[in-house]
């Protein structure tokens, strides 16, 4: 079956993309071959017979999603990558040189190679549809655009905007694309092709003036149009990239290098340098890993599947109990997705803070042009604060986010059981308490489920959905669909203390505590983790969570799992001596004048006389990572998670485990399970500590030379 379909109506050709057996159009080998031959046909008839060409898509809401990632993934040598990029550009350049008025009619996602194709057309039109998203997201896959994007985009939207678009990989909407001069006209979705045809006619008749970019301000004009300005701009762009990526991601730096070296140079030189840079990146492990994470993300848009026989209930209105950090954050998120909620607390101050925080987040979204001003007011108005259960009687789903105390939670669920209709789903955001126990208090435990958000709610993409032994299929399906509607990646896990992610993460935080006790400097511990790619060090994270909360969860897990999860004594000492019973974010570190520094009293408080140790960075890192891998293996052994992919997506989306390492268990496979088991035994012997003993699941993989993802 053909991927392209060419129609000629009078003197205008319409080239329609429709990749067979695929939800999206992609530029793969077949499509490019077809495009090559069609462009040759058009070249032969251009001018006399045919005057214009519209490139369009048959897929709804998708123009062209980009080059075929499967083909990029298979690239095994830089030579092969250069060839692929050069052939692609050769074909697109032929399209660009056609003696026709060429228009890309963008009806939806126009990404990567799709945008590069559109950039080779003389004009671009787009529909008013919200599905229109235009960008070059290659850096997110550890690559740079390889079909001329680094060369063409600056010419159309200007050097500054183009560089920023390429470095961020972010997509722009149709109206923004029009403002930037990236598209020339916006038309109603139903009339996109017809109106594009009229647009060509007007151009042919010379009746239309195309206004591209707006005039630049003085500052931007200096940065873009003078050699000194450009040097300043590239220097700053490089510094910003290093600050953001901490040097772990080479692609954005390569993109800067290519644009800097080729801007204003001949097209041939630019094209070759772009292809060479692309080829170097395409064979890196980082790019291959980021592609794996891309697939994982795609898979978890629909997985876990909701059984087709179960119809999830509609959720039109929600209740939230507890307006603290989490409840307030959840209310804001629901407002963002236009879901009204009643937000209940026993404390007026908490409600006030929750509304203020939500307003701050909405205002920020407006500043970043994600929301319009009127949307901010509307969305904020969807959060309705209360100190009673009034209004909860007609909610479809309630999320409980009160303090982490079983008795209080059970009391709330008893009340919720009585006040809500029997169709409403009752979800708890508990971090560590068993859902089954919480559900015992509700009059119908089958509609109780765990819905564990991560902090901060608007930023962390993961939720764990926890199924208790009593949760009904219907309640589970409704919760999964609801969580996806509010933009979350969902993993379904078993009802065990700490569930999946906190259970794994706590072993790591605890190990950091033990290293501290053994005399390792805490800023060294944090540095080692950050150097590995974690977004922050474990001790910094304990401060973020609050040492009181961290300690509480650690004790719950110690109670459940015994010696191997024994809470590092440091947590208790610090909690007791510093801020007994008080929630604080400054404990191990203190903040002064916006700077964070180690608390000078911390070693004294912890009872450590001399903070220096013989533990090497390598051993410290292995200890922290290998206990996590061991715990994750146990979770698979016990069926807490169904497969390694669930652990990997959960750790990346819930804790910020570095995506360029492809996930905790993919990383483990890259080291070899036999290697990990051996090292864990060594640690167990050296430290006489049960927590290092490898679990049977891990041992059996090591013995049979398998990894989490199969044969290594
Ligand atoms: P928080 O202390 O900030 O807020 C709890 C709120 O619940 C307070 O405003 C309190 O006034 C209110 N409250 C207490 N009893 C109530 C009742 N009977 N009815 C209504 N409101 C009541 O706590 P938090 O950090 O938002 O945590 C809430 C829950 O979310 C806990 O179960 C916690 O384990 C879980 N959680 C927390 C985080 C986190 O990082 N903070 C992450 C995931 C899950």
Order of strands, main sheet, comes to 14-13-12-15-16-17-18-19
When the domains are counted, the total is: 3
Bound molecules: nicotinamide-adenine-dinucleotide
CATH class of the largest domain: Alpha Beta
CATH architecture of the largest domain: Alpha-Beta Complex
Termini gap: 37 Å
Largest sheet data: 8 strands, mixed
Our Rg estimate from Cα atoms comes to 28 Å
- Name the shape in a single word: globular
**CATH T-level fold name of the largest domain:** 2-enoyl-CoA Hydratase, Chain A, domain 1
**Residue runs with pLDDT of under 50 for 5 or more positions:** none
User: On the 0-100 scale, what is the average pLDDT?
Assistant: 94
Helicity range: 40-55%
Compute the number of helices.
30
Query: Can you count the beta strands?
Result: 23
Q: What is the fourth-level CATH superfamily of the largest domain?
A: 2-enoyl-CoA Hydratase, Chain A, domain 1
What is the fold's blueprint, element by element?
Blueprint: E1 4-9, E2 12-17, E3 26-27, H1 29-45, E4 52-57, E5 62-64, E6 66-67, H2 69-74, H3 78-97, E7 101-106, E8 109-111, H4 113-119, E9 123-127, E10 133-135, H5 149-157, H6 159-168, H7 174-180, E11 185-187, H8 192-204, H9 218-225, H10 227-245, H11 250-262, H12 267-282, H13 285-299, E12 318-321, H14 325-336, E13 341-344, H15 348-367, H16 373-381, E14 383-386, E15 397-400, H17 406-419, E16 425-428, H18 435-439, E17 448-453, E18 462-467, H19 473-485, E19 489-494, H20 501-517, H21 522-532, H22 538-545, H23 547-561, H24 569-578, E20 589-592, E21 595-598, H25 602-605, H26 617-637, H27 644-655, H28 664-671, H29 673-687, H30 696-703, E22 706-707, E23 710-711
Parallel strand pairs: 2-4, 3-6, 4-7, 5-8, 7-9, 8-10, 9-11, 12-13, 12-15, 13-14, 15-16, 16-17, 18-19
Antiparallel strand pairs: 1-2, 17-18, 20-21, 22-23
């Amino acid at each position: 079956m053909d991927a392209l379909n060419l129609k000629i109506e009078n003197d205008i050709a319409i080239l329609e993309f429709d990749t067979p057996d695929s939800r999206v159009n992609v530029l793969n080998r077949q499509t490019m071959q077809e495009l090559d031959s069609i462009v040759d046909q058009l070249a032969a008839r251009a001018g006399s017979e045919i005057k214009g060409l519209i490139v369009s898509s048959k897929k709804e809401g998708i123009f062209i999603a980009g080059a075929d990632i499967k083909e990029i993934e298979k690239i095994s040598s830089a030579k092969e990558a250069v060839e692929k990029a050069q052939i692609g550009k050769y074909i697109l350049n032929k399209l660009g040189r056609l003696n026709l008025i060429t228009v890309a009619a963008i009806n939806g996602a126009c990404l990567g190679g799709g945008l590069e194709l559109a950039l080779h057309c003389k004009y671009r039109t787009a529909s008013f549809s919200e599905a229109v998203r235009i960008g070059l997201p290659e850096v997110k896959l550890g690559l740079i655009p390889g079909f001329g994007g680094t060369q063409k985009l600056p010419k159309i939207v200007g050097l500054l905007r183009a560089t920023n678009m390429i470095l961020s990989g972010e997509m722009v909407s149709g109206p923004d694309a029009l403002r930037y001069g990236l598209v020339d006209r916006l038309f109603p979705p139903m009339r996109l092709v017809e109106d594009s045809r009229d647009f060509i006619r007007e151009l042919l008749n010379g009746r239309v003036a195309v206004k591209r970019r707006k005039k630049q301000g003085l500052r931007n004009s200096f940065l873009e149009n003078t050699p000194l300005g450009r040097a300043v701009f590239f220097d700053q762009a490089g510094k910003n990239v290093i600050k953001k990526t901490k040097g772990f991601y080479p692609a954005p730096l390569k993109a800067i290098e290519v644009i800097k070296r080729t801007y204003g140079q001949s097209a041939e030189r630019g094209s070759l340098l772009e292809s060479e840079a692309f080829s170097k990146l395409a064979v890196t492990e980082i790019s291959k890993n980021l592609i794996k994470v891309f697939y994982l993300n795609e898979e978890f848009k629909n997985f876990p599947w909701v059984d087709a026989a179960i119809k999830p209930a509609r959720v039109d209105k929600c209740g939230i109990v507890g307006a603290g950090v989490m409840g307030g954050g959840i209310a804001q998120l629901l407002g963002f997705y236009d879901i009204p909620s009643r937000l209940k607390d026993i404390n007026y101050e908490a409600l006030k803070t929750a509304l203020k925080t939500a307003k701050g987040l909405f205002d920020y979204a407006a500043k970043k042009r994600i929301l319009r001003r009127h949307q901010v007011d509307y969305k904020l108005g969807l959060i309705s604060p209360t100190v009673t259960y009034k209004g909860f009687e007609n909610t479809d789903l309630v999320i409980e986010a009160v303090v982490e105390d079983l008795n209080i939670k059970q009391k709330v669920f008893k009340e919720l059981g009585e006040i809500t209709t029997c169709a409403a789903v009752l979800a708890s955001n508990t971090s560590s308490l068993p859902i089954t126990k919480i559900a015992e208090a509700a009059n119908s435990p089958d509609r109780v489920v765990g819905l564990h958000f991560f902090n901060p709610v608007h930023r962390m993409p993961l939720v764990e959905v926890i199924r208790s032994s009593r949760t009904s299929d219907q309640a589970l399906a409704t919760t999964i669909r609801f969580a996806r509607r509010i933009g979350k990646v969902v993993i379904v896990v078993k009802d065990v203390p700490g569930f999946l992610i906190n259970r794994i993460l706590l072993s790591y935080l605890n190990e950091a505590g033990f290293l501290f006790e053994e005399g390792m400097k805490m800023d060294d511990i944090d540095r080692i983790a950050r150097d590995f790619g974690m977004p922050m060090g474990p001790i910094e994270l304990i401060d973020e969570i609050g040492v009181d909360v961290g300690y509480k969860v650690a004790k719950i897990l110690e109670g459940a799992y015994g010696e191997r999860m024994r809470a590092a004594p440091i947590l208790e000492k610090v909690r007791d001596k510093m801020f007994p019973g008080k929630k604080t974010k400054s404990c191990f570190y203190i903040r002064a004048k916006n700077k964070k520094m180690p608390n000078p009293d911390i070693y004294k408080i912890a009872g450590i006389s001399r903070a220096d140790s013989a533990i090497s960075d390598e051993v410290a890192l292995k200890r922290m990572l290998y206990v996590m891998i061991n715990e994750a293996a146990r979770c698979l052994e016990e069926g807490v998670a169904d497969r390694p992919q669930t652990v990997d997506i959960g750790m990346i989306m819930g804790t910020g485990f570095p995506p360029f390492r492809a996930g905790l268990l993919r990383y483990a496979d890259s080291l070899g399970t036999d290697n990990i088991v051996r090292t864990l035994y060594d640690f167990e012997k050296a430290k006489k500590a049960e927590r290092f003993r490898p679990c049977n699941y891990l041992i059996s993989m090591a013995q049979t030379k398998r990894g989490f993802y199969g044969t290594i």
